[in-house]
Specification:
This protein starts with 13 loop residues before the first helix and ends with a strand. A hairpin with a 4-residue loop joins strand 4 and strand 5. Helix 4 runs parallel beside helix 5 (259-275). The chain is of the alpha/beta class and 368 residues long. The chain has helices spanning 14-32, 77-87, 102-121, 217-237, 259-275, 292-295, 311-318, 329-339; strands at 140-143, 156-160, 170-176, 203-204, 209-210, 241-245, 279-283, 299-303, 322-326, 344-348, 362-364. It has two domains: 14-121, no CATH class; 140-364, TIM Barrel. Helix content is 30%, strand content 13%.
Length: 368
């Protein structure tokens, strides 16, 4: 005759072993006051008790009405089960010894359900604000060299991030995201400035700006952290879009930076800008226009695209969401002839200075 232990099992079927394992985990969690998720299939074991199963089933009868609702107003099943398990008295099932390994495996499954269920009940994150590019073909003014009252009829203005946006217009916030401002390379950590073999900064000779080193994920993240602060300031001031300049800095790096580095960097910048509800401009760099969607770019600011016959490259990817900035009368005339009334087009002086400067020039297409 088989000797009986304190609590003997009628059989060793998988369902019974699993029932006991979950019982053990349940009693342990009851002491810890942690809610347990389990379900009961419509069958019973030889003990007369319901047999839990991982293969499916249904939960015990719910209390009167669970008042946990998701963002759509419907009851969340996972939340209901958690609430039910937390508030429904549990039957006291006998404990029994199981073969080694069974309690730990089944207990792990129960514990995973307990840990993951609260996450399912967490409220959804707020949706990102809507991102709207500048109106296509709008009258535009480029005021990077100093803010001034926009001329009559102007609809879109770009200004440096230090300036306030123009009231009642669509405003684009300029940030120098890929290069240091002239003479300001020491404002950046030493290793974030791109350097040559002798340790000297690699400089954009046209503008006397040191290139930032975007060659590694770690450095890109640190640079993006500062650019994100500037972007946040733009959003807080009421700007509608951001224009990260020098996307094409890799072309001036002597091979130290690549297009892939630039795309990875602009993607970080655009991701945060979109979270703040700002549209993001692709500044120049026609060779990367085909990647605008993957990089999160919403419109283009194309300097001298008429002069260098590149405007079609931008319109192929961005449609009419292209702002053209020319610096000669001949290029302005060509741009107006080909895209006037369709794209935003302006002729500015190279220093984009404010009125009162001896160099100030601003012209638009006839009729604007």
């Amino acid at each position: 005759m088989r000797s009986r232990r304190r609590f003997d099992l009628p059989d060793r079927s998988p369902d019974v072993l699993l029932a006991t394992a979950i019982t053990t985990a349940t009693l342990t969690r009851i002491r810890m006051k942690v809610p347990i998720l389990y379900s009961f299939p419509p069958k019973e074991s030889g003990t007369g008790l319901p047999v839990p199963s991982l293969s499916g089933g249904y939960p015990p009868p719910a209390p009167r009405k669970a008042r946990l609702r998701n963002s759509r107003g419907s009851v969340d099943d996972a939340c209901v089960q958690t609430a039910t398990a937390a508030r429904t008295p549990r039957a006291r099932l006998p404990r029994a010894r199981l073969p080694r390994g069974v309690p730990s495996a089944a207990g792990a499954a129960v514990l995973a359900a307990v840990v993951l269920a609260p996450a399912a009940c967490a409220p959804p994150s707020a949706p990102a604000p809507a991102v709207v590019p500048p109106p296509a073909g709008a009258v535009f003014d480029y005021q990077l060299g100093g803010a001034y009252p926009p001329p009559a009829g102007t609809e879109v203005v770009a200004r440096d991030r230090a300036a306030e946006p123009a009231e009642g217009l669509y405003n684009i916030c300029y940030v120098n995201a890929f290069q240091a401002q002239p003479g300001k390379e020491d404002d950046w950590d030493h290793d974030l400035v791109l350097r040559d073999g002798d340790g000297r900064p690699v400089v954009d000779e046209d503008w006397d700006e040191a290139l930032l080193d975007i060659s590694t994920p770690g450095r890109r993240a640190r640079i993006a952290e500062r650019v994100d602060r500037w972007t946040a300031q733009c959003a807080d001031k009421g700007y509608d879009a951001v224009e990260p300049d020098n996307y094409d800095s890799y072309t001036r790096s002597g091979g130290r930076l690549t297009a892939a580095h630039a795309r990875a960097m602009i993607t970080l910048i655009s991701r945060y800008a979109h979270e703040r509800g700002l549209a993001v401009a692709q500044k120049n760099t026609p060779e990367l226009a085909a990647h605008r969607a993957d990089s999160g770019l919403d419109f283009a600011v194309a300097e001298e695209c008429a002069r260098y016959d590149e405007c079609d490259v931008y319109t192929e990817e961005f449609g009419d969401d292209v702002i053209v900035v020319e610096y000669t009368d001949a290029a302005l005339a060509d741009a107006c002839r080909r895209w006037g009334g369709t794209l935003s087009i302006v002729r500015r002086d190279l220093g984009v200075t404010a009125p009162g400067s001896g160099d100030h020039v601003r012209r638009t297409c006839p009729g604007d």
